[in-house]
Design brief:
homodimer, alpha+beta, 9-stranded antiparallel β-sheet, 4-stranded parallel β-sheet
Chain lengths: 377, 377
């Protein structure tokens, strides 16, 4: 329950990002209200103030926003028209719909960034197999095809090795708008968080390496094992992108570092991000706390690392067994910080993450992976 | 809501210790149920599962304990007979009533510790002014008089400068059982936390200095500015006391360091403690997380400091204004971690605390105090 000067921050979406944001809201005495799709959503299991409603129902969004001083997001899967309607109603949305569009619409993002000279892979919207084949002829195979809207965690992304696969995909996916994108020879994948206030004040987190398998982020290592110049370039690009999209709250920028050492923007998220969970224990101020501080326009906290290295391993269920049953064993691994999301286990589902700090990234990562493997079943 | 393997941990009391324990319970996926005296208690404002009931009502305690796998405590102000009744009902209480007695009954604690040769100030139960006067003649004035049960934060403690004050107090306090205690010439006050599992596994936190004014802890500095031998002696005593009282969860031991460099046990708490709030950001594992890990019998986390120094300043309201209104200003102080407890402001009331980390204790303390002073009004 809110009182006195306590701001009511609404978060649309009740997943683990909302759950961890809720934790961060408690010491700040911000009243975080959750709009969860289901009463057993990750954040809904723990938060005091939960509304159950559909993020694609304007009626539910309107009812929810009425009780909030500012509205923010656990995910970007809200209709842009609904966001605009909330703004027209007079609600304060942070980030604003115009910022979120950069994360929601990959074609729009690529087109804007190209126009501004920001480094992005070559891309084009395709609507027929011929377009895809032509793109492949120009840029070479493989070609990456992505849904323009709504993909995540490897869903809605296809790597087409040869022309015949292109024809197959376009045949199967006629109803989706697709973006064809140049396949990048990746040396590493990097990510960086920026927290930005409405007036433009921003802090930039350390650049991290993300280790993806099948499009799903499995591991994060901070700082990324890259040259200082690369880290500085990534930080500079992320800062510039934050201003370009007029981010408010956390902006996550994912980069490819290609085999020639060039940075290319891969994905954006205008909210706390899986690549930043290491910041809970690894940084002076977590991404969740800085997201909240930014959306209520408070001074931002220092994002510096508190240890030489921090590593996070995601807990991706391998069985349907409850990871809570394996906590005693997992916590036997020295110096691990376990975060379970309170989600029912299903093979492949992300149920939590483990962070470890250390003097050496390899040692921290080894411990985090060991505990995560125990929890995964 | 609990699910699958999630343990239901009940906490009796809904104050700020329960609020911070609740935060720590979320990543561990422990379902922390709060028995709050009032629906607007600090922890009740944020926790998903709150029962409202009186901690001195056996009926309320029984109804609450039924829904818990293990019961623990935000305070020790529960009737020992009620605790025994819950154990007789088959409930698992951690710490056990026998451990809590050391914190609840100062006479019992002093008598046991004296018998074991643990260093405590000389003391005696007094029931008449003559007894107090006699104690003063033997040990010199001033004499400290304490209620045997129920005192906290300077309440229930009197420093009697001379015989006439003793007569006055005993006249006014005839219904209370009093403990007369030798007044110690204090160089510093120190505190140390031990987290201990049911089987005896324990970890010892760094020794800290607590700065008290009018019996209320205002500041904490970790590590305490004492010689290594003193710190080691305090750690050894705390570890021995944890075994003596068969602590389960956090045990806080407060020491006097007297002008001759001797350590004397002052107070005990068998729960998370105000002197340990620095551990949330200052240690690899916070006192709240280790309390929970101990009471569900999971391996304990490393209590080592993550920085050279950590300091905490309590926010003691000087006005009735809501500190949430002053967050923007307070967070302008660099590198401060603010924790507000969501309590209505009243002059003198403890509304929160601020922790800062640093290379130098003085610098960390200065920043923590600056932000706390802003929040205090």
């Amino acid at each position: 329950m809110a009182h006195g000067g306590t701001a009511r921050v609404g978060m649309i979406g009740g997943g683990q990002l909302a759950r961890m944001t809720f934790q961060a809201a408690i010491p700040l005495d911000l009243s975080l209200q959750i709009l969860a799709a289901r009463p057993d959503d990750s954040a809904a299991r723990v938060a005091a103030t939960v509304s159950v409603g559909a993020p694609d129902s304007l009626e539910d969004l309107r009812a929810f926003a009425k009780g909030c001083d500012v509205v923010t997001f656990d995910h970007e899967l809200v209709e842009p028209a609904h966001l605009e309607a909330l703004v027209a109603d007079g609600h304060c949305l942070r980030p604003a719909p115009a910022s979120m569009r950069f994360a929601q619409d990959k074609h729009y993002q690529r087109a804007c960034f190209e126009a501004l000279g920001l480094p992005v892979p070559a891309s084009r919207v395709v609507s027929a197999a011929d377009d895809l084949l032509k793109f492949g002829e120009e840029h070479g195979w493989p070609v990456v095809a992505k849904v323009v809207r709504g993909g995540y965690d490897g869903r809605g992304v296809w790597i087409l090795e040869a022309p015949e696969e292109a024809a197959e995909l376009v045949g199967a996916a006629t109803k989706m708008e697709l973006l064809a994108e140049q396949w990048v020879r990746i040396r590493r994948e990097l990510a960086i968080l920026v927290a930005r206030r409405p007036g433009g004040e921003a802090v930039v987190y350390p650049v991290v390496e993300t280790v993806q398998r099948d499009g799903i982020c499995h591991e994060i290592v901070a700082p990324a094992p890259v040259e200082d110049a690369t880290a500085a370039a990534a930080a500079g690009l992320a800062r510039r992108i934050a201003d370009t999209v007029e981010a408010c709250g956390i902006l996550a920028v994912e980069f490819f570092l290609d085999e020639d050492g060039r940075l290319l923007v891969n994905e954006l998220a205008t909210r706390p991000h899986n690549s930043g969970h290491y910041s809970i224990e690894g940084c002076l101020t977590s991404q969740f706390q800085n997201h909240l501080r930014a959306v209520v326009d408070w001074p931002l906290g220092d994002p510096a690392l508190v240890a030489a290295a921090a590593a996070t391993a995601n807990v991706l269920a391998t069985t349907a067994g409850d990871p809570a049953m394996r906590m005693r064993e997992a916590l036997g691994v020295p110096g691990v910080h376990v975060h379970l999301y309170g989600k029912e286990a299903r093979p492949g589902r992300k149920l939590g993450h483990v962070t470890a700090l250390g003097d050496e990234p390899d040692d921290a990562l080894e411990r985090a992976k060991r505990a995560a493997a125990i929890l995964a079943g």
